[in-house]
Amino acid sequence: MLILRTCSLTFLGLLTGFMAAAQTPGTAPTPITLLSWVVWFLAGMVLLMAVMTAVSVTSTAQRRYGAEQVKSNDAEVVMAAAAPIEMVAAQAVTTEAAPQVVAIEEAVYA
Q1: Which residues, 6+ apart, have CB-to-CB distance to 81 below 8 Å?
Q2: 75, 100, 98: which is closest to 87 by C-alpha?
Q3: Which end of the chain lies in a sparser environment, N or C, as judged by fewer CB atoms within 10 Å?
Q4: CA 98, CA 82: separation in Å to the nearest integer?
């Protein structure tokens, strides 16, 4: 009787211990953990795409601004070069003097 009682108590003790261990959350990821990983991954991808788009837009704007600056500088150089010729021509017409030689500095663009 003593052996039966000892084995029964040991078996019931082990059974309740295993059942309690089976009900507690283990190291396996729960659905909430998996969902949070998916959400963080998607948020990271969205952030990465936003940064890439911002860099692309900034780069394009800088190139366009640089091209407009070069065009405006070219127009200013042409107007500056044409202005002395027009003034000399206007003076020649009004004073009817001998033709004058005008030296124009040429801009070199690499």
Answers
A1: 104, 105
A2: 100
A3: C
A4: 20
